[in-house]
Structures are given as structure tokens and as C-alpha cells.
Amino acid sequence: xxxxxxxxxxxxxxxxxxxxxxxxxxxxxxxxxxxxxxxxxxxxxxxxxxxxxxxxxxxxxxxxxxxxxxxxxxxxxxxxxxxxxxxxxxxxxxxxxxxxxxxxxxxxxxxxxxxxxxxxxxxxxxxxxxxxxxxxxxxxxxxxxxxxxxxxxxxxxxxxxxxxxxxxxxxxxxxxxxxxxxxxxxxxxxxxxxxxxxxxxxxxxxxxxxxxxxxxxxxxxxxxxxxxxxxxxxxxxxxxxxxxxxxxxxxxxxxxxxxxxxxxxxxxxxxxxxxxxxxxxxxxxxxxxxxxxxxxxxxxxxxxxxxxxxxxxxxxxxxxxxxxxxxxxxxxxxxxxxxxxxxxxxxxxxxxxxxxxxxxxxxxxxxxxxxxxxxxxxxxxxxxxxxxxxxxxxxxxxxxxxxxxxxxxxxxxxx
Length: 415
Known about the structure:
Elements (H helix, E strand, L loop, with lengths): L24 E7 H7 L2 H10 L4 E7 L14 E9 L5 E4 L3 E7 L3 H5 L1 H12 L6 E4 L5 H11 L2 E6 L14 E6 L2 H10 L7 E3 L21 E5 L8 H12 L6 E5 L5 H10 L6 E4 L2 H4 L5 H6 L4 E4 L8 H9 L2 E5 L14 E3 L4 H13 L1 H18 L2 H21 L8
Parallel strand pairs: 1-2, 1-6, 2-3, 3-5, 6-7, 7-8, 8-9, 10-11, 10-13, 11-12, 13-14, 14-15
Antiparallel strand pairs: 4-5
Helix pairs in contact: 2-14, 4-5, 7-12, 11-13, 12-13
């Protein structure tokens, strides 16, 4: 947590005013996968930037239900949809959003990728952005090409534990934001000459006012898993652990939130273990309620959040569960800054049913231990994972990138 941006000393009375800061006209770029990774953080990020950025747009590469979380206006939504079969480009503009109609057949853009770049560039050019922000590493190549066409700089957020796609050698790349401190250190070792561009930017949240786990003494303990219902996620072991702890104590209720091809097999396993009355399959959290605080509303009814597999890509569920005051049992991961062994979560080895059952049983039979664990997790978030701190760091790098671009000419794209 020691990675911080240099602080800017306040101006004192009698000192000459500093240089006039250029207004920030920023376009954030994301696809469906990135929007799901951010989840409710997307709204907090957008709302926090409204006061700092003169013009803020979100270019969504596709149509997503998560865009309803974005306050538009004042944020300009630019969406890409596939809806015409002729080569004529169409752009529909309303007060709320701009819609780019792309070719109906996706392979056309695969065969002629520059057509898509020109289409997106022509749409963004009238808005005169001076900075692009790729919200995940999946958009690096596209944002890099658009930035060269518009002659503006860009920054990239890394949500994955694999930083191989970071283009730190590109002079137009003004910064790389790592949501994991381990990835930040790894990149700085790999690129020592460019470590100033590499920033540790933990994704922030808002904290609940109280600890919610085991706040209903008469109710049965509620466990919850959020994520894909696919093989290799530790879900089979989780069902076995629930069956073990049900033999010697209160019957816990297990909520499995997500979708995937493994759901039918999990249901069959629950019937074989005779715990089908305790296992409940739910849709993804963002699909349950059409409100920006859907995660927090759902997690208020949960006592223990379970992460039975090592997550390598950032997901918002663990952060939101901790913020609302859930006790956490998670597979040990040295790369995850939210998980501090025996302080913010009880950790177990991946695939170990006995360890998982023992950790769950300890929290169920000792609610005071669970509440203390949840309170420690909230304190950890208060120190390192607040939305306000995330916005402050982000705006500083935005301003620095725009000021540097005003003094150093950007390289021209070869024709």
C-alpha cells in the first residue's frame, strides 16, 4: 500500500498563481467484460469524476444492461451496436447517448479492422477529447490506434493478474493503473525506466455504517458465492463442505449467484448430498435489482461470503461484500490485496473440503469471531479502498498527462 502519487503542496497567500490547467475532456472505453468487472464501481467512478472532468464520455463497445448505472446526462454515453447491412455509416445522437451502427456481420470488422477504428475515431473527433482511458487491458490495442488518429494520449487500467499486454513503450501511453499491488511491483521491475507511469490504483467503494453478518440471531446462517457456475471454481468442494457442517450444527443456507453450464451438475450433487433444501441458485447480482446499490442490498442479507477459488481477474463482489460487513472465507491468494490472512478473511487452500468446512464452522459457531473479522475488513477498506482516494489519484494522472501532451508533441501516425 506504499505506492502513492506525489502530493501537490497547497498554494499559500502571496505566492504567484500556478499555470492555468487545461480542461479535461476524457473518454473512457470499456467492453461488456470490463463493465461486469467494475460493477457498481462504474457509477461511483463516473459520479466522482463529474466535478473534476469538464467533459466525460463512456464509449461502450457493445450494448450492456450495466449502462443503466451510469448517470447520463451529464455523462455522454457512446454505444456501438450492429444493425446495418450496407457500407453506409450511421450515427444516431440524442441528449442521452450517441449510437454507432456497425456492420451487421462482425467478421467484416475482423477482416478490415481499420474501418472500425475510423468509425469510432470519426464519432469521437467532434467531442474533442484530450485523453482516452481504457478501463481494462482488453481495449489497449483499439485505444492505442484511436489515440494515434486523434493525436491524444491515453491511460490503461489493468484488471487482470497478467500484465503482458501493457504497452509501456508507447510514447502516447501516459500511465498504467494496476488494481493489484503485486502486478504494480512486477511491472516496475520489468520496466524500471518507466516506473513513473506505473501506478497502483486500488478500486474503491463506499463503506456500510455497520457490520451486517450475524445481525439476525434467530435466522439460519446465510452463505453466498458469486461468480461463474463452471467447473474448476471449487463449487463441488463448497457443496461438500456445507454437507459436513450441516451434520453438527445449524443448517446453513447457501446462495449460488451466477450462471453457467455447471449449474445442472451442481443441482444433482446437492440432491445426492441431501442438501437440496439448503442450496439456492440465483441470477447474477446485477440482474436481481435494477438499482446502483444492488450489490449492497443483496449482501445485507448474507452472513458469510465464500470465494472458493483463486481469482486472478478483478471482480467487484468480494469488495462489496467486505464493505457491507460480511465475514469472508476465501482461497488464499498472495496477489489479492483484499485478502489478508486471519485479518480480513479466513483463508483455505484451493480444493480442500476439510479446511473449507472447518473455516465455515468456526464462523458459524462463533458469530463474535465473524463480526470481528468483518469489522477488520471494513477498517482495511477504509485505509486503502475508498472511492475518494481512487478519484483523487486518477484525476492527478489525468491532469499530468494532459499537461505533458501540451508541451511534448505527440508522434504522428504514418500514412
